[in-house]
Amino acid sequence: MFARLRPAMKRPSALLLGVALSASLTLTACGGDDEQLSGFDAVTVSGPVGSAPEVDWKGRLKPEKAKAKVLEEGDGTPLAKGDVVRVEFTLANGWTHQVNYDTYDETTVSKLVRVGEEVEPMSVEELLTAEIVKAIKPGQHLGTRIGVTVGSEELIGDYLGNTQVSEFFAGIDVGNEDGLLFVADLVELAGPQGQAEKAPAWAPKIVEKDGVPAALDFKGVPKPTDKLRTALLIKGTGPVVESGQSILVNYLGQVYKGKKPFDESYTGTGFVATVGGEAATVVKGWSEGLVGVPVGSRVLLQIPPKLGYGNEAQGDIPANSTLYFVVDVLDAADPEPAPAPAPAEGSSE
């Protein structure tokens, strides 16, 4: 959990870090920029659901308590409490009229939100989406676009001054007295989307609870080999995952003949990892098994120790374990572009 520290400085005198604006969100500022307006009186949002919204500012947005509004009603599946929905969203600053955070671009994965179940934020990203979570209600439909206006100090609340939180919001150019606008689209239920494929003989059976994987059943499963094995249980229809990308997934992991999983994300709100390349954040078996898989797929991996944790134990995972994972690949994003090299000394540029 975040520690609670002293309040950070206010916007008029804060020293804030600048960030590049996303090209995927169109922002325009109208006359009366200096006038402070309340909630959705300060802004008009347009554009099709599922694409980056167009935002027309009528003035500066007052930093106030959260106000949520359904901007466009969807006609998709109605949501029930406990459903996990994939959300694309953008955060725009009502003081600077700039984009602070945007999942519609190609370098940021979307987020998973559990409907009707608010929890205390345990990470900066959960804090960032806290007001979106509150605004998504059971009975709303997929395809709905929701707007939220809120003051930055109200959003950050008790975590104002926490070093991690302060650095994150400073890094995206959010001051403590800024009015913020969130625009969120309810895209789809979190889960594989594609054609079911026949499971191979080496694959354990997936035991489900409430429609999602809860364990692996190894009854009748042959002894694993020392090779990586990959099976597409559902072949997605999205773009293939490329080396170096960040992916949004749900997963469950269990050792060969293990009685229960050693880890899973299906009861949470997903997991983001970088696969392939020097920046990979997962074991080699994930990178080698998931690069090339289409987004929307459900994949079963058999990972030998040499591509997992080797001869070192990891928590509930014994040394030299063969790891089995079921992974739902829900989204993928390109790495951030490398900064341009500084001009050589003495160059004419």
From TrEMBL:
Its EC number is 5.2.1.8. Residues 1-29 form the signal peptide. Coiled coil: none annotated. InterPro entries: PPIase_dom_sf, PPIase_FKBP_dom. One of its GO terms (molecular function) is peptidyl-prolyl cis-trans isomerase activity. Residues 244-333 form the PPIase FKBP-type domain. Keywords: Isomerase, Rotamase, Signal. Pfam families: FKBP_C. It catalyses: [protein]-peptidylproline (omega=180) = [protein]-peptidylproline (omega=0). It comes from the Bacteria. SUPFAM superfamilies: FKBP-like. Belongs to the FKBP-type PPIase family. This is peptidylprolyl isomerase.
